[in-house]
Design a protein that fits this description.
With 422 residues, this protein is α/β, with parallel strands linked by helices. α11 packs across α12. The radius of gyration is 23 Å and the shape is globular.
């Protein structure tokens, strides 16, 4: 089987690149991405997302992995894996544009007998009702007669160097029993943690979309608890530490919920439910709670400053971190921008420092300027907001940036001294 399979991974972002690198250890593999700058950087041996180390990437390229933006380079593949983003628009409606584009690409190159597997997070039915018709139209081939499909939801945790792609159990599925077995075999051959073969594509799609919805709801619950305990003058972190001594207490923490998974996937499930005539109250309530936490954090910072006797307008505030999570350069759908936006409404001056985020990406996505560490190292601020707990921040003496009556606000509750917590 290994000699027969040639894999094309379409989309070389946080999901596609680690997968292509892994597949290349056993199969001939080509990574396809329309971003030529991204392709050039990868072929030079560096992954700006930091998901694949330079050493691993360079080894994979030396071993035969090819990254390209030329569609002709994937024409002779027979196992296509689609790993493109599935965002939401400004109204929180699923945006399937990247999937339609990737499906068009597949349709231009797929041949009889080939398989296309989707990894992008979607609601049940998208693979067969939205994507496959595009492949059929472009290719002129008939689904489950000339070509076949599968769905294997991505489970990448950006920035996590312990739970890498091969160490996370993979859900697989296929459009026929025979194809399902073949898809499962191919993934199982490289996934150390093993696989779970779902009975249908729709079951696999549903399994993925509820994973992050469950996390979203649990985080929303502890975010609500933090608001309640804050009014009562109780330290939320201390409450959670006490409660977690019970064996079955779930260890969730309050905080900002952004990124391209937890902050997005519940909207896919919610819209699917509404299309079937059901209003998902708990899912949407969790989303409202978490989407409002940026504004809440900013207001809490201002309240702490006022209680400290500070006049707000014109004060200087340092925001540490703008990525959506710790130790990861990804700024997509980061909720730190909501904190910054609300703080600016109070007439304060904001300085942002993040050693991992790309200046260019932050400016492009949000119109915000990052300040290098060399420019802030000697400055003092009226308040410091530890928004993202990068390891570098935890190793710093954050108090050095704060004026005598200044405030440190710790969104994740990692600091122990002289700080306010969410």
């Amino acid at each position: 089987m290994e000699s027969e399979i040639k894999i094309a991974v379409i989309g070389l972002g946080y999901v596609g690149l680690p997968l292509a690198r892994l597949f290349s250890t056993k199969y001939k593999t080509v990574g396809f991405d329309m971003n030529q700058t991204r392709v050039d950087a990868l072929m030079a041996g560096h992954d700006a997302t930091l998901e694949v180390s330079d050493e691993l990437l360079q080894s994979a390229i030396a071993g035969g992995l090819v990254c390209t933006s030329n569609i002709e380079d994937i024409c002779d593949c027979n196992f296509y894996v689609v790993a493109v983003p599935t965002p939401v628009d400004e109204n929180h409606n699923p945006d399937l544009t990247p999937l339609y584009g990737a499906s068009t690409t597949v349709g231009e190159v797929i041949s009889k007998g080939d398989i296309v597997v989707y990894e992008s997070t979607v609601y049940p039915g998208v693979t067969e009702d939205e994507c496959i018709p595009v492949v059929e139209k472009v290719s002129g081939l008939k689904y489950n007669v000339d070509f076949f499909a599968g769905y294997s939801p991505e489970r990448i945790n950006p920035g996590d160097k312990e739970h890498t792609v091969e160490k996370i159990k993979k859900v697989t599925s296929g459009s026929t029993p025979e194809v399902a077995q073949k898809v499962n075999e191919i993934y199982a051959s490289v996934i150390i943690a093993g696989t779970h073969l779902a009975p249908s594509i729709k079951v696999a799609e549903a399994a993925k979309v509820i994973e992050n919805s469950q996390r979203d709801i649990n985080i929303a619950f502890v975010n609500e608890l933090s608001k309640i305990f804050n009014r009562m003058g109780i330290d939320t972190q201390e409450v959670l530490e006490a409660a977690s001594t019970k064996w079955n207490f779930l260890p969730f923490k309050p905080g900002l919920v952004g990124g391209h998974c937890i902050g997005v996937d519940p909207y896919y499930l919610a819209q699917c439910a509404q299309r079937h005539g059901y209003n998902p109250e708990i899912i949407l309530a969790g989303r409202r709670m978490n989407d409002g936490m940026g504004e809440y954090v900013a207001n809490q910072v201002i309240k702490c400053m006022i209680n400290n006797g500070q006049v707000i307008r014109g004060t200087d505030i340092l925001v540490l971190g703008i990525t959506f999570k710790e130790n990861c350069p990804d700024v997509r759908n980061t909720k730190v921008v909501d904190v910054i936006k609300t703080l600016k409404e109070y007439g304060v001056n904001i300085v942002i420092f993040d050693p991992l985020a790309s200046d260019r990406e932050v400016m492009k996505e949000y119109g915000l300027i990052l300040t290098p560490k060399s420019e802030i190292i000697e400055l003092k601020f009226d308040a410091v907001v530890l928004a993202v707990i990068h390891d570098e921040f935890l190793q710093m003496n954050i108090s050095m940036f704060v004026k005598e009556k200044g405030v440190i606000y710790d969104v994740k509750g990692e600091l122990k001294n002289r700080c306010y917590k969410l």
